[in-house]
Write a structure and sequence with these properties.
Elements (H helix, E strand, L loop, with lengths): L1 H35 L7 H22 L8 H5 L2 H32 L13 H5 L1 H25 L13
C-alpha cells in the first residue's frame, strides 16, 4: 500500500512539474515573440518569475520523492546500522522540522498579503502566487513521510544505504 501511495504521489508531482515546465516555456516563448514584433506583454516577466518559483517548490518535492537532493551520504554509509538508523532519523527530524516551520510561516504570510495584488495583473491576488510556499512545504513533508519507511529499512541493512541518486519503491 505504501509503495502504491508513493508511486501515485510521485506521478502527481511529475504531472504538476511537467505542466509548470511546459507553461513556463510557452509563456516565455510567447513573451519573446510579442517583444520581437514590438508588442511587449506587460505581465510576462512577472508571470514567468512566479512560474519559476512554483516550479522550484513543486520540483523540490519531486526531488524529495526521488531522493535526488544534493547530499553527502558517504559518512552515513560507513556507519554500522546501529548508528545509521538514529543518525538518519535525526536528519529526517531536522528536515521535517524545517519544512513544518516553512509551512507555518508560509501560511502566516497569507494573512499579511490579503490586500496585495500583482503589479502587472492587478486583478490577481498575491495570495495565489505566494501560496506555493506553504503548499510546497506540505508536499515536501508528504514526500519525506512517504519515503521514511523505506529509508529506515535501508538504514537497518548492512552495506551502503544509498546506491545511486534514487531509492526505488
Amino acid at each position: 500500500m505504501f509503495a502504491r501511495a508513493r508511486a501515485g504521489f510521485e506521478s502527481l508531482l511529475d504531472a504538476i512539474v511537467i505542466v509548470l515546465m511546459v507553461g513556463l516555456a510557452a509563456e516565455v516563448i510567447i513573451g519573446v515573440v510579442f517583444r520581437t514584433i514590438g508588442e511587449s506583454l506587460v505581465w510576462y516577466d512577472e508571470v514567468a518569475a512566479i512560474l519559476l518559483a512554483w516550479l522550484t517548490y513543486y520540483g523540490s518535492a519531486l526531488a524529495a520523492m526521488k531522493r535526488a537532493h544534493i547530499g553527502f551520504s558517504g559518512l552515513v554509509d560507513t556507519m554500522s546500522p546501529a548508528w545509521r538508523v538514529p543518525t538518519m532519523l535525526l536528519a529526517e527530524f531536522c528536515v521535517f522540522g524545517f519544512f513544518i516551520l516553512l509551512a507555518y510561516i508560509g501560511w502566516s504570510v497569507m494573512e499579511v498579503l490579503t490586500t496585495d495584488y500583482l503589479v502587472s495583473l492587478p486583478e490577481v491576488s498575491v495570495i495565489y502566487t505566494q501560496s506555493v510556499i506553504w503548499i510546497g512545504a506540505v508536499l515536501f513533508i508528504i514526500a519525506e513521510a512517504l519515503m521514511l519507511p523505506q529509508l529506515i529499512e535501508r538504514a537497518r541493512r548492512p552495506g551502503p544505504m544509498h546506491q545511486g541518486p534514487e531509492i526505488n519503491p
